[in-house]
Amino acid sequence: MLTVSDTRAASDDRSGETLVQRLTDAGHVLADRAIVTDDREKIVERLRAWCADTGVDVVISTGGTGLTGRDVTVEAHRDVYEKEIDAFGTVFTMVSMNKIGTSAVQSRACGGVAHGTYLFALPGSPGACKDAWDEILSLQLDYRHRPCNFVEIFPRLDEHRRRK
Predict the structure, then answer these.
(1) Strand order in 34-36's β-sheet?
(2) What global pTM score does this model have?
């Protein structure tokens, strides 16, 4: 769980705490948690380190997905992705439209896959994190969700690396 912020610390990271609470309540194990500044290289470094860790299946970041000059989380994620999950941003926008109307256009939430690890970049508001978890990620990270889910294809995410 990664929070991207120039101003947050562990004591006031409400979005990060929202995600940690929800994922642990759903029975998932939090492998690690960090806060990094809005610095593209630092974000990339942290994402790549977690992708290289066999104990990490999913990385969720919060913050830095907006339109300001300091918002570089999306670019950092895309530096790491092998494949982008294009529909994640679309579905997040649809969910957001029901909550905040046309203000949803200001989010650049995204998702992708790298080195057999799912990565998702969410906005830095607790409400956006709740919406993304409750209406998308909690379902896709549950092997019981039908007709399909992210969990059932975990073993195949890095199959291209095993081919000879």
Answers:
(1) 34-36, 2-4, 58-62, 117-122, 110-114, 83-84
(2) 0.95
